[in-house]
Each structure stands twice: as structure tokens, then as C-alpha cells.
Design goal:
By secondary structure, the protein is an alpha+beta fold. It has 17 helices and 28 strands. About 35% of the residues are buried. One 2-acetamido-2-deoxy-beta-D-glucopyranose (NAG) binds next to loops.
Length: about 725
Amino acid sequence: MGGTGHSVFFLLYVLCVLWTLFEAESQKTSDCARWCPLNSRCVNATACRCSPGFTSLSGDIFTNLLENCDDINECGPPLAVSCGKFADCQNTEGSYHCECSPGYQLASGAKTFKNESENTCQDVDECSFRPPVCHNSTVCVNTVGSYRCRCRRGWELKPGFQNKQMNTTCQEMSFPAWTEPPGIKSQRLSNFFKKVQVLRRDFKPALAQDTIQNLITSVDELLEVPSDLDALALPERHKMATHLLSELERVLRTLAKAMPGASFTYRSPLNTELSLMIQEQGDGYTTIGQSHARMLLDWAVAAAARDSDPTVMGILSSWKMQKLLANASLELDPETKAKLKDLHQSPVRGAQYELLSAVNLVFLSNTNTEHLDSPVTFAFSHPMKTPGPRQGLVCAFWKSDDRGGGHWNTTGCWTRGTSNDSTTCQCSHLSSFAVLMAHYDIEDPKLALITKVGLALSLVCLLLCILTFLLVRPIQGSRTTVHLHLCICLFVGSAIFLAGIENEGGQVGLRCRLVAGLLHYCFLAAFCWMSLEGLELYFLVVRVFHGQGLSKCWLYLIGYGVPLLIVAISAAVRHEHYGRSLYCWLDPEDGFLWSFLGPVIFIVLFNAVIFVTTVWKLTQKFSEINPDMKKLKKARVLTITAVAQLFLLGSTWVFGLFLFNPHSWVLSYTFTVLNCLQGFFLFIFHCLLNKKVREEYRKWAGWVTGNRYSEFTTSSSNQTQAHRPSESGM
Ligand SMILES: *[C@@H]1O[C@H](CO)[C@@H](O)[C@H](O)[C@H]1NC(C)=O
Ligand SMILES: *[C@@H]1O[C@H](CO)[C@@H](O)[C@H](O)[C@H]1NC(C)=O
Ligand SMILES: *[C@@H]1O[C@H](CO)[C@@H](O)[C@H](O)[C@H]1NC(C)=O
Ligand SMILES: *[C@@H]1O[C@H](CO)[C@@H](O)[C@H](O)[C@H]1NC(C)=O
Ligand SMILES: *[C@@H]1O[C@H](CO)[C@@H](O)[C@H](O)[C@H]1NC(C)=O
Ligand SMILES: *[C@@H]1O[C@H](CO)[C@@H](O)[C@H](O)[C@H]1NC(C)=O
Ligand SMILES: *[C@@H]1O[C@H](CO)[C@@H](O)[C@H](O)[C@H]1NC(C)=O
């Protein structure tokens, strides 16, 4: 029986252990918190832990019953997983993955990846993946995630289509229309345009290279000397040059787009050089050019804003073009003028020049080249030349004007340096360029001083004359009236000259036109009054000897009416020729100066004839048996005075012709001195040498200084008079 008891005991023991184990197990289960929220597990009876990829506000493990486990955004901060280039990070519930950006895919073909190191994203080439979708006149261009169609070389957009669309359609390029400039008669030019028409008719994009070469040869032939173009007037030449340059630019730009290959250079037998660069894409700085000119510019500058392919850059350098563009004016920019003024201590009036380099026509796809984003640098070759004093090398461009002509202008171009045989320039805009050797016309400070002082003296003298003629009773008469108005005209003219002859250069404003018109009027009027003096003398001596001469009415009509008529007609026909960029005077273009010179020469000759007749009549009268010596002597004095006056005024303006030609500085000085002395001489002739006037002056001096002095001056001047018996007395 004892064995059975043992067994029961053992069984009880096992049961007891099992119970204990069960108890322990049930105890353990009850230690797990039963409130753990979604995406979490319990840690023990009081704490929960968030699943991977989730977190709560107080961390992974939390004890607060109100906490939640939220998704962690691995793509955003602070983790910000990096997926690498052309890929995006995508967050998912409890995780994330990387995907290639639209238009890219993984090399393996898989859709997602986890780590930057697994990134093999590459562009999908839609052009090779898909069946040909672009029109056969275009080329398919792969873009990110898509494709575009662009015109083939030598093809241009069909009207109504846009380039680089999916539906772009193109047509074969044609030679742009080019018509003759109006109003230029030249056989040579007509022949040129006949050739252009043939080139245009036979043009095929595939033959663009031949067409360009033929065009350049034709331009060479056009400019070959000698030709009937030499007979063209300067304004016509400049018009033709402006037309030729702008049209060549347009035509070459179009033809260049049809050229195969990336670059092209051609040098004609007559040394005209064309360099082209034609590329679909590019960036950074590019150099193009050959021996005559080189250009360095940013690709972005060359490409057109609306990207019509391909991008073209070109330089055409022609030495023959110099002939057409020589003798145009050169306008220096204010900056250069200021620099030269500092250098020479005197303002620069203008500049003459000599063309040194070839004329270089620059063109780009970009046609908006007035203000470039970054400047273009050029190196222009030219024969070696060392600038002398008051000379310098300048980079200038051909600026067309509203009238179709043009001039050289330096605004926006800087000369960066010169070596033996080339000059480096930098410009902020594009056009046709050349290197000029400019001879600066520096204003002569001495001349300016002489003019100012002399004119002031002249004005004082003229004023004295005017007062004398108005106030001195004994000399009143029609001759004095003529003198008076002559002096008034010269006074007003000189005053306007002193105050307003200079123009700042550049624009010719209303003020300058008015000044030029008034000067024209005043000096013409002065000459008219002088011719009246001749007429008076004629009446006095030849016709009646004691005659009355013209009535006042006629005097005014001739003295003020005739110049008014001339100025009115001149202004009506060519008002734009009043005023020049540096001087407010008549523009000699188209012979406009003759509206002044013509009347002046006529009056001078007219007076000369009258004086010769007068002198001849006088000698006859002197040899008469019983001459009236008193009147004859008076007439002789009058004649001498009038001749001297004519000589003074006439010769002044003969020199004045050269005033605006800065080369003849000797003549400029002579003109200035004579011009300034006019008033002084008139004062001497008509006032100081006139007995009645002198007596009147003495009286005035007496009133001013008191009787004692008056007596003294009277006696002393009587003495003087005694020594000079031949003086005039009118
Ligand atoms: C439950 O676990 C947390 C964290 O491990 C601990 O801080 C806490 O003391 C534990 N509670 C109990 C009753 O063991
Ligand atoms: C990504 O891969 C690199 C190297 O292969 C490894 O060092 C890095 O830990 C990985 N990063 C992740 C988030 O797996
Ligand atoms: C384009 O296709 C048309 C027919 O659809 C064909 O006549 C033409 O010659 C093709 N043009 C080119 C440039 O291949
Ligand atoms: C070409 O497609 C564009 C949209 O991609 C559309 O606006 C345009 O009208 C289309 N042009 C022609 C000529 O069909
Ligand atoms: C151009 O200027 C030069 C030198 O000043 C001169 O010899 C030539 O006759 C001028 N040509 C014309 C057409 O005026
Ligand atoms: C300039 O010319 C001289 C001789 O004419 C030559 O010695 C010198 O090297 C040249 N300089 C440059 C920069 O070409
Ligand atoms: C010179 O060119 C600049 C820039 O094109 C222009 O603003 C300026 O008016 C021109 N000067 C003259 C005198 O025409």
C-alpha cells in the first residue's frame, strides 16, 4: 500500500507544480496593460511601446492613457531621408520609399527604392521610346518627362505654329525679301539687286553655303571702285550704307540658320571675311571670328529670348565698306568728352577721324541687342598707327538716324586697350563697329577768351554808337538812320552770338534752332543795311549829289523786310538745317549755308560796284573847273568810310566761312578778331572821327564833370583838330 501513497503524492506534487506554473502564467498575462492604442504594444502593466515607424508625443514608450502613436514622416525634418538626384521621397503609413521624379525611371525598371545609394534614376528618352510623333519636317527633342519637335536645319516655322511644341510643323526656309533703298540712282546698285533677286529665286536651304558666298561676292562687287556710287552725295551714301548694313544683317542671320555644321568661315577674294557659329545648344563664353575681328560673348546673350533654334552668331568684316561710311560725323559720348576735357584741360568740340579697321557687322539670333545683359568684347585688327597729340583710337558703332542716314557714335562702347595691330573694345549693345583714329577738336581756350572779351568790347562800342545816333541832334538824317540800324542789327546779332552760339553737342533743340535763325536774320539784316549805305552814297554822289535818297519806308522795307523774306523761305524749305550739334548756326549740308552766303556775296559785290562808280565819279568831279570842294571832300570821306566798313564786314564773313572748320585755326583767329573789332571800328568811323559827334561828346563830358573841365577839354581838342585838317565833318 505504501507504493500507491507515493504515487498519489507525486501526482499531487506535479499538479501542484503545474498549478504554480499556471498561476505564474496567469499572473504574467495580467501584467500587460490592456489600454495600448493602435500601432503600439504593451511593455508591462503600466507602459506601451509604439510600433516601428510610429511615435507618440512622449516618445516610443509611454504610460499616459491619452497618448496615441502617430506616423513618423521620414521625408520631412528632422529625419529628411535623402533619395538622391531626380528622385522624390514618399512617406507611407509607418514607412516611406523613394521614387524617380516624373520623366525619369530606375535603370532596373523597379518602381521604388529605399536608400540614396540605390538611386539609378535616369531620363526617359521619349523620342526613342515612342513611335515617331513629330512631323517629318521637324526633329524630336527629348525633354524631361516629355518631348518637343523643333524645325530641322534649313526649315522655318509654318505660319500659325509655334516652335518646340508637340504639333510643330515647318516649311523650307526662303531667302528673305530685300528691296532697293528708295531714292538712290545708281546702275551699280541696280545690278546688285538684280543679282540678289536671282540668288533669292534659286535659293535652296541645302545650298545656303553657296548662296552666302555668292552674296558676299556680290557685295564686294557693289563696293568695288571706281563706280557710279562715288558720285553720290554724302547723305545718300550714308543712307545706302545704313540700308546695306541692316539688310545684310537680317539676310545673313536667316541664311546662317540654314547652314549645316556648327561653324563656317569664308574669306572672299577681296578680303571680306564672314565667320559664323550655328549651334542648337551651348553655354558659357564663346569666341568667334577670324583675322579681321574676333568676338567674345556669353552664349545666353546670343540666344534669342523666344528660343527659335538654332542660335547663330556672326561677324562680317568688310574693308570695302569703309568707303561708304567715311566722311560721316563722329559723335563722342559725354563720358569720353569728360575724360578728354580732363586730359586736355579744355572742352572737346568734336572730332575728325580716319577709319582704321574694317567695318564689322555683328549679328546674333537675339535681335534685341540695344542693351545686352553682359557686354561683348571685340578685338579688331587694323594697321599699326600711333596716335599723335590730340588723337586717340576709339571704338565706334554706326548709328542710324530717323532720316535713314547715320553717323559714328561711341556711346556704350569702351576702348579697352590697343596693341600693335589690334584694338580691344567692349560694347553693351550690337551693331556695326569700326576702330577710328579720332583727331579731337579741342576748344582753344585763348580763342574762347578773345571771343568773349572782344565781343563784349564790341557790344559796348555798338551801344555807344546806337546812343550817339539816337541822341546827337546835329547828325540826324537818313544816313544816320542807316548807321543806327546797322549797329542795332550787329548789336543784337553779337549779343545772341555771345549768349547762345554754343550747343552742348548731340541734340539740336528748339533753342538752338531759334538762335541759328535769329543770327541768320540779324547778320543778313546788317548786310542789307550796309547795302543801303551804298545806295545812299550812290544817290548822294552820282545821281543828284545833293539828293535826299530813299524814303524811310523803303529803308525799313529793304533793311528788315528782305532778310525776313530770306529767312522765312529758308525756314519753310529746310527748317531742320538751322542749328548744328556743336554750333547754333546753319548746317552746311545740302548747300544750306548759301542762304546766308548768297545774299552776302551779292551785297558785297553790289556795294563794290557802287563804290567803284562813286570813286570814279568823284575823281571826275574833282577835275571839274569849278568844283564844290567842301561837298566833294565830304563825299570822299563818306566813300572811304563806307569802303572801309564794307571791307571790314565783308572780309569778316569771308573768314567766317571757315569758322566752323576746326582745321583752319589761323582763319578762326582772324575771324574772331575781326568780328570783335567790328563794333570798335564802327565807333571810330562814325563817332570818334565825326566832328559834330565829338563836339556833342564834349558837351556831355562838360555836364558830367563841370565847366572847368569842359573848357579845358574844348581847348585841347581844338588843338588836336588843328593838326588834322582833313577830318570829316558831316
Ligand atoms: C513598466 O515598464 C516601464 C518601462 O520599462 C518601467 O519604467 C516601469 O517601472 C514598469 N512598471 C512595472 C510595474 O514594472
Ligand atoms: C544607405 O546605404 C548606406 C550605404 O550603402 C548605409 O551606410 C546607410 O546606413 C543606408 N541608409 C539607410 C537609411 O538605410
Ligand atoms: C514628309 O512626309 C510627307 C508625306 O507624309 C512627304 O511627302 C514628305 O516628302 C516628307 N518630308 C520629308 C522632309 O521627309
Ligand atoms: C498646337 O498645340 C498647342 C497645344 O499644345 C495648341 O495650343 C495649338 O493650337 C496647336 N497648334 C496648331 C496649329 O494646331
Ligand atoms: C571725304 O573726306 C576726304 C578727306 O577728308 C576727302 O578727301 C574726300 O573728298 C571726302 N569725300 C567726300 C565724298 O566728301
Ligand atoms: C609690336 O611690334 C614690335 C615690332 O614692330 C614687336 O617687336 C613687338 O613684339 C610687337 N608687340 C606685340 C604685342 O605684338
Ligand atoms: C549715340 O547712341 C546712343 C545709344 O544708341 C544714343 O542714345 C545717342 O542718342 C546717340 N547719340 C547721337 C548723337 O545720336
